[in-house]
Design a protein that fits this description.
The complex is a heterotrimer. Chain A is an alpha/beta fold. Chain A is built from 10 helices and 14 strands. Chain A has 2 domains: 212 residues, Rossmann fold; 56 residues, no CATH class. In chain A, 33% of the residues lie in helices and 30% in strands. In chain A, the strands form 3 sheets. In chain A, strands 6-7-8-3-9-10 form a 6-stranded mixed sheet, with helices on both faces. In chain A, strands 2-1-4-5 form a 4-stranded antiparallel sheet. A 4-stranded antiparallel sheet of chain A has the order 12-13-11-14. By secondary structure, chain B is mainly alpha-helical. Chain B has one domain. Chain C has a 3-stranded antiparallel sheet. By secondary structure, chain C is mainly α. Chains in contact: A-B, A-C. At the A-B interface, helix 2, strand 6 and helix 3 of A face helix 1 and helix 3 of B.
Chain lengths: 298, 225, 130
């Protein structure tokens, strides 16, 4: 048994207008990974490859110890997958879908399914076509949760949901982790959700992984320094600082490898540090993507 | 376990498409009922509508059972189940063909009943009737094969258009080249000439070939989506 | 009951640390009492396990909680914990205030004067309310 629920090594995939370059990704068992990136970055493609729905051009994919896409049938017994573009059968009721899942998966927990129906405010007798968008998303997630799979792979599980529904889903996701050994990979635009529940964050942009690490360590490495730069003082280029914006005598420096000595390094050059601020994941997201795009251009 | 998943997929398709199957049978039987009225016009109208109800099913069933799964985005849901592309394709082919055979066989029996028991049509009509009944079956296989392999609504519709316009042409060609087909159809005895057997054999071969090629091409696919 | 806020300027793990300390300081979590496991608390609050882990590690380092191998986590059983927490809070706040003052270039004498002014004002207010 490997330590990793998901392992991608050097995965590449070419499309007419888009390429995935050398994707290396590891999800440790018993953790949640949030996959974030702009639209078209390659989140959905990466997820489809690890589900075995799309065959990679090169590289190795291993999910729960199974080689993908070759062993996808064996792997999918233990994977719960839901994606934003997935739909249930319009003309059938939610109850029919529940019975359908029960007929396939022995691990189906009916009591939990009934509990989720109540928690999510869903009616089993209702046909899927009569459900609102939010209810549809919750219904699809219910069908995944109630199987209690070892690995959940969710493509944008909270997109388009109202705040209450989002809260309900986040609650269920963190509740999954009480059981040791269960893992979750989810992709999202919503940096707040990722920041709150992920153990590990992976950044993807334009088909490349930019960053992948422990969330707490990652958030700790980023700082925004507000500086006062008197006339005649030139700000030094310091390691760990990826960008400085200057307007008049004020400047803002963004550091992605913050060092406690950084403020004093600025001070010794003549500038004054007015504030050292933590950054939200959304701010990091934007700064990171802009920075990495500049690097690729250079 | 694998066979159970395939079985559940087939049962699911039956559950989703059963309304259309029932409608087809009802329409076909209603058309046959017109034969009881006697007289030239009801017989012609009845047999035409009988044929049309089969053609209707032959077109719509592949579109609804195969193309819609992709169009309505339920394919991702199915693909999240423990099943691979090849198994999905096989289960889909089985369910679609199985579903079609229900009304086809039922209406065939209903027609035989009308001929042998109710004598609404002479027995001579049986051989040529069988040849004609295979048309929608062949058409269905072609549309199904195209829809499954090409994975697009456009190709499925194109197959439908080509198939539907070909029925009359094929019939015309058969009738002009094999006189024995229509010589005895109004007679009281079913005449099974070698020509009839040849035609039936060719029809059967086309069906088997179409389904075989479909299965082969489907199994060679790498990606689901 | 833990309520964390995404709009709070402080990191999540710091909010959790503070709320746990508050629970101990007011006595809701008694000294020596068993506290929820990391995974359980993470699920209760609705945050990542790693954040709670970080909070617990820091609390253990500060001597506020202890982990007993195989048995779980407990509030530190020494009775000075509540007072120590409050003392720590004061120390942190003083440090923050002094840092801000230093950054703005306030002199130590000026700082002392201002602290005395605030102290006098606050104690006067208290006397009035009594």
């Amino acid at each position: 048994m490997t330590d990793y629920a998901i392992e991608l090594k050097g995965v590449c995939k070419s499309y007419p207008f888009f390429d995935l370059h050398h994707i290396d990704l590891r999800l440790q068992r018993g953790t949640i990974m949030g996959l974030i990136g702009p639209n078209g970055a390659g989140k959905s493609t990466t997820i489809r490859i690890l589900m075995g729905l799309v065959h990679q051009d090169s590289g190795e994919v291993s999910v729960l110890g199974h080689r993908m896409p070759y062993d996808q049938v064996a792997a999918k017994w233990d994977i719960g997958f839901a994606s934003e573009d997935m739909r249930l059968y319009d003309s059938m009721t939610l109850g029919w879908h529940i019975r359908f899942m029960k007929s396939i998966y022995a691990s189906w927990d009916d009591a939990y399914a009934q509990l989720l129906l109540k928690r999510f405010g869903l009616n089993a007798e209702q046909k899927v076509k009569g459900l609102s968008h939010g209810q549809r998303v919750k219904a699809a997630l219910l069908l995944v949760f109630a199987r209690r799979p070892k690995l959940l792979v969710l493509d944008e599980p909270t997109t388009g949901l109202d705040p209450v529904a989002r809260h309900e889903i986040l609650r269920e996701l963190t509740a999954v982790m009480v059981e040791d050994g269960r893992s979750i990979l989810f992709s999202s635009h919503n940096t707040q959700d990722v920041e709150q529940i992920s153990d590990q964050i992976t950044f993807i942009d334009r088909g490349r992984i930019i960053d992948s690490m422990d969330k707490e360590i990652y958030l700790d490495r980023w700082r925004r320094l507000r500086l006062e730069v008197p006339d005649g003082v030139a700000l030094p280029e310091l390691p760990g600082v990826i960008g400085v914006q200057k307007a008049g005598r004020l400047a803002v420096a963004i550091a992605n490898a913050f060092d406690p000595h950084l403020p004093s390094a600025y001070e010794s050059s003549g500038a004054r540090v007015r504030a050292v601020e933590n950054m939200t994941l959304e701010e990091i997201f934007v700064a990171n993507v802009e920075h990495s795009r500049e690097e690729v251009k250079a | 376990m694998r066979t159970n998943v395939m079985l559940q997929l087939i049962l699911k398709d039956w559950r989703l498409q059963r309304r259309m199957i029932v409608l087809t049978i009802v329409a076909g039987v209603a058309a046959l009922a017109m034969l009881l009225m006697g007289g030239q016009t009801p017989v012609v109208v009845g047999t035409v509508f009988y044929f049309v109800s089969m053609v209707f099913c032959a077109c719509l069933l592949p579109m609804q059972n195969i193309v819609n799964e992709r169009k309505k985005q339920t394919l991702s849901f199915v693909m999240s189940l423990p099943v691979a592309s090849a198994q999905y394709g096989a289960a889909k082919l089985l369910s679609t063909v199985g579903l079609f055979l229900i009304p086809w066989l039922s209406l065939l029996c209903a027609a035989l009943y009308m001929i042998l028991v109710r004598h609404s049509l002479p027995n001579g009509a049986i051989p040529v009737g069988l040849v004609i009944m295979n048309f929608p079956l062949i058409g269905f296989c072609l549309i199904t094969g195209t829809a499954l392999v090409a994975e697009s609504e456009g190709w499925g519709t194109a197959a439908m258009a080509v198939v539907n316009s070909s029925y009359w042409l094929v019939w015309y060609l058969l009738v002009s080249h094999i006189p024995s087909l229509h010589e005895t159809w109004s007679g009281p005895i079913a005449v099974w000439t070698p020509a009839v057997f040849k035609v039936l054999t060719v029809e059967f071969a086309i069906i088997v070939l179409t389904l075989g090629v479909t299965l082969y091409l489907q199994s060679r696919k790498r990606d689901f989506i | 009951m833990f309520v964390i806020s995404q709009t709070d300027k402080r990191a999540l793990y710091l909010q959790i640390i503070e709320q746990i300390k508050q629970k101990i300081a007011v006595g809701d979590w008694a000294t020596g009492q068993a506290i929820p496991s990391i995974r359980q608390l993470a699920a209760d609050i609705g945050v990542s396990v790693i954040t709670v882990k970080r909070a617990y590690l820091e609390l253990e380092r500060q001597g506020v909680i202890v982990t007993r191998q195989g048995k779980g986590c407990f509030v530190a059983s020494d009775s000075g914990v509540g007072a120590r927490i409050r003392e720590q809070e004061l120390a942190e706040r003083l440090e923050q205030a002094v840092r801000s003052a230093a950054m703005m270039g306030v002199s130590p004498k000026n700082l002392e004067k201002r602290i005395r002014e605030i102290y006098d004002r606050v104690t006067d207010e208290e006397k009035e309310t009594i």
